[in-house]
């Protein structure tokens, strides 16, 4: 995924949610991940060990962007939080290879 995207990033969306963004290089790359269903709730749930019902996906074709939000595994800043800024959550998504 990282090769087809300009940027793949993750960040906090409040203390209980993570947001990831895929900024695709062009409309063709966007179509591969968004329109053809490569990125969907089940894929994200499998990557991050989530319930698919908890995954929210927002597709923004005018910007070639896919935004994904899901509940943090632990609350931000809690004792077990190993990534306070949620800056490393994007790594499994960036490593995903579109078929």
UniProtKB/TrEMBL annotation:
Name all DUF4387 domain ranges: 5-95
Identify one Pfam family in the record. DUF4387
Identify the InterPro entries for this entry: DUF4387
Name of the molecule in the record = DUF4387 domain-containing protein
Q: Which organism is it from?
A: Nonomuraea deserti
Q: What is the lineage of its organism?
A: Bacteria, Bacillati, Actinomycetota, Actinomycetes, Streptosporangiales
